[in-house]
Request: fold
Amino acid sequence: MNQPLDTPPPWRTASHGRCPAAAAKDPTPCEGPRDAATIVDRHGRESAGCVHHCARLLAGLEGARVHPFVPAPQALDVYSRARELPPFAWEIGR
Ligand SMILES: [Zn+2]
Reply:
């Protein structure tokens, strides 16, 4: 009950507070703005997120692509990162 005021509340840590593109099992933190890019899967479902998690999502989703409205620099960043990643990178500790 006497916790210092600068201790973050528990819901602000771990998987919470990350962008929607972050997989629940992916332990990595966000990188940059959390709405930097949007991934569209082959069924047309959209998922906005940071460049880091969009790339990881893209690497594991067959037929997925970056939303055409995403500015070219961010889209290229997501694609070039995804190309270097195995699908579901966090399962092998990356
Ligand atoms: Zn993220």
User: Anything to note?
Assistant: Strands lie at 37-40, 46-49, 65-66. The mean pLDDT is 87. The first strand starts at residue 37 and ends at 40.
